[in-house]
Hints:
Membrane topology: Single-pass type II membrane protein
Strand content: under 5%
GO cellular component, one term: cell division site
Subunit structure: Part of a complex composed of FtsB, FtsL and FtsQ.
Largest sheet: none
Order of helices and strands: HH
Keywords: Cell cycle, Cell division, Cell inner membrane, Cell membrane, Coiled coil, Membrane, Transmembrane, Transmembrane helix
Distance between the termini: 107 Å
Radius of gyration: 35 Å
Shape: rod-shaped
InterPro entries: Cell_div_FtsL
Amino acid sequence: MSRLLLTALVAANVISALAVVYARHQHRQLFVQLSRLERARDELNIEFGRLQLEQATWAESNRIDQVARDRLGMKFPEGPEIVVVRP
């Protein structure tokens, strides 16, 4: 009986050790994946900041005014060119 108990305890100890090794291996893999995802997130945040800056530059009113004048030939109307329509 004690021999059977000893064998069961040794088997449980080996199984427990294998479970610890597996859990550590899985933890390392997940940590590496987390690090990759954090790096990708940081790169996306940097790109998003660049795109916001670019959008602000393109949407600036002076830029829009310059493009309207240069490319489209637009200008502000002079006094006699303004017509007021009243209901």
